[in-house]
Amino acid sequence: MARLPKLTASEVDGVNYRRARTWEIAFSQLNNGSAMIFYVLVGLMSYLQNAGYGIAVAVAGVILTLTRVLDGVIDPLLALVIEKVRFRFGKLRLFMLTGWAIRSVAVVMLFVWGSDKGLGAGFFVGMYVVYVIGSSMNDIAGQMTAPILTNDPRQRPTVQVWATVYAYFFPALFSIVSTVLILPRHGNEFTVEMLSETAVVFVACSFVFQVLACLGVARIDKPENFTHIDVSKEKAEVTVRDMWNLVADNGPFKRYLISGASDKLAQVVKSQAVIGTLMWGILLGNMQLGTTLGMMAILPGIVFAIFGARYTGKHGSKGATVTWTWICLGLAVLLAAFCLSVDLQSVLGSVPLTVVFFLVYLLLNGSAMVVTVASGAMRADIVDYELDRSGKFLPATVTAAYNLVDQIISSLGSTLALGAVALIGFTAVMPQPTDSPTTSILFMTLALFFGLPILGWICTLVAMRGYKLDRHEMIEVQKRVAGRKAELEPVQPEAALT
Fold first, then answer.
1. Where, by residue number, does the polypeptide cross the bilayer (predicted)?
2. What percent of the chain has pLDDT over 70?
3. Which CATH class is domain 20-227?
4. Using one digit for the tens of pLDDT, what is the confidence trace for 81-105?
5. 235-478 CATH choice from 2.60.40, 3.40.50, 1.20.1250, 2.30.30
């Protein structure tokens, strides 16, 4: 008996979904890979500030924190510009390449041309602000690709999978390039020459991936894919009022922001080096363990991301978020209870305890990866819902508003971590891996490492209770959008009778 072909999402849902080719998705998300190269380079900024511009370490931290907040403030202004402009060839490639060019020029000016020339802090801050503007422009345009490439619920989560793979792979690869290939050529010291060579190599590599990203979006980067369906105006324009209405009146978007902000704060605090010192160095007695586990988690994380895309495509972004947030919550509680019930100093000396700790930790990271994939699909759903709700297609605004919250939360993460460490006695000196574990260190570390994520996941579950864009509702959203677009299409003249 012949096997019946598998029905497509369009056939099952009764919606003519827009789909992208696999290579287009893979190439388009290389914009995220290119951005990750600059992310690694920015990690060397503290060395550049000190070696190339004579800025004190403490002042350097303040500068980077303030400019991070500035990044979030600039995003909405750039989003308004991106939403308003219209070009006959689209807009993604223009803003992606322009943003890349601005950030690249700023990097070359900082690392190559201006470094060690006695130009001082003023020049550094000015050029870094230019870098922030270019980065924001490139990132917003790159993140707009997801809702434009595809609205097929089975395919949309795969966009986030590729972005996640690059987010893991590129930082690891280019950190190796910097520390293993370039650093030894300069006596294993972060000198001005070493930083300059690293910048040139990184910028050149990023350009290759940026061009590939532009190829990935070339077919869909057309004016008709950015049109509004606000039939009350002859020519719909995006205004500041539209941006405000998105934040004020779009209920699912506000719930998405609450979910993202709570999870992001927990992630940022947990990733602080000082918290890693408390957990891996002092409590477990092996400072290198955190880095080792991070590398070990890459491959399982990618596997979970691929599985998460399939799960999200079948159950919708809300269904995947709720289910896997519960799983994350359960695993985090289990691991926290494990850490409280055993002597952490003895874990690495016992094979059974080590296996239990590693297994649950990797499962927790993998489950969080599924939530990340679902979150990426959810943002694209919100763009389509806003188009249905207000008639305005606002992918840049949704991205910028999320980035603003993301930047503010990220800037608060280090402050919260350092404040918490100060509460347990580390006011004059920072914790060191050689310090002895105490009860206060144990409880504070577990509160930050597991307690804060647990609180974030609880906030997500509460926010998702009123989030109405489940899989069935998104099908109806796509049907309504398709119907309203069909109404706006010009009527084709009937063929002449013969």
1. 25-47, 53-82, 94-113, 119-140, 161-183, 198-218, 265-283, 289-309, 321-344, 350-374, 408-429, 441-464
2. 89
3. mainly alpha
4. 898 888 888 799 999 999 999 999 9
5. 1.20.1250
